[in-house]
Design goal:
One of its GO terms (cellular component) is extracellular region. This protein is mainly beta. It has a single domain, classed as Beta Barrel (L,D-transpeptidase catalytic domain-like), CATH 2.40.440. It contains two helices and twelve strands. It is globular, with a radius of gyration of 16 Å.
Length: about 180
């Protein structure tokens, strides 16, 4: 739990791609903070979605666009400990994007995905229990090149042991979605 001043409704998820943190707003002054892995260069996006559904030990079907980039991928993988979606998944609107677990905890804090947001399995199980279907999810734009990424979300003040610079970022808007 961290100090986090926000004007968002409790239960809102704010994804700070620049700093690789996900915040679950608890009240006007606090949030749960989770480390995340985010989209690699060319696969970042921003905008507002809702949690459309949640699944425990989800099956994985890579989208056609991902298979065309990586033809060696399986067309289907049943849910379970070896599945790349990990222990839980929260599907974002009608997009291919998810907030999901990972079996590769060393990817947290890195830009490695095709646009999905990943957490350790332990963290995604905790978040899964706290987030409701229908919850708002705000994905903040990544920082512009040559601009420090240690910024707080546009409507929030965040205090932690790490220094945080004030934000000049515009608020999140509906995303131009890419396929995962």
């Amino acid at each position: 739990m961290v100090d986090y001043v926000s004007h968002q409704t409790p239960g809102t998820v704010v994804i700070d791609t620049g700093n690789t943190f996900l915040f679950l707003v608890l009240n006007d002054h606090q949030a749960m903070r989770y480390g995340i892995g985010v989209g690699r260069e060319g696969f970042t996006w921003s905008g507002e979605q809702t949690v459309a559904r949640k699944t425990e030990w989800p099956d994985w079907r890579p989208p056609a666009e991902m298979i065309s980039r990586q033809p060696y991928l399986p067309r289907f993988m049943a849910g379970g400990p070896g599945n790349p979606l990990g222990a839980r998944a929260m599907y974002l609107g009608e997009t291919e994007y998810r907030i999901h677990g990972t079996n590769k905890p060393d990817t947290i804090g890195k830009r490695v995905s095709s646009g999905c947001i990943r957490l350790t399995n332990e963290d995604v199980m905790d978040l899964y229990e706290r987030v409701k279907v229908g919850a708002k999810v705000i994905v903040l734009p990544p920082p512009a090149p040559n601009r420090p990424s240690r910024e707080a979300p546009p409507d929030a003040a965040f205090r932690s042991p790490d220094p945080v610079a004030p934000s000049n970022r515009p608020s999140a808007t509906n995303a131009q979605m890419q396929s995962s």
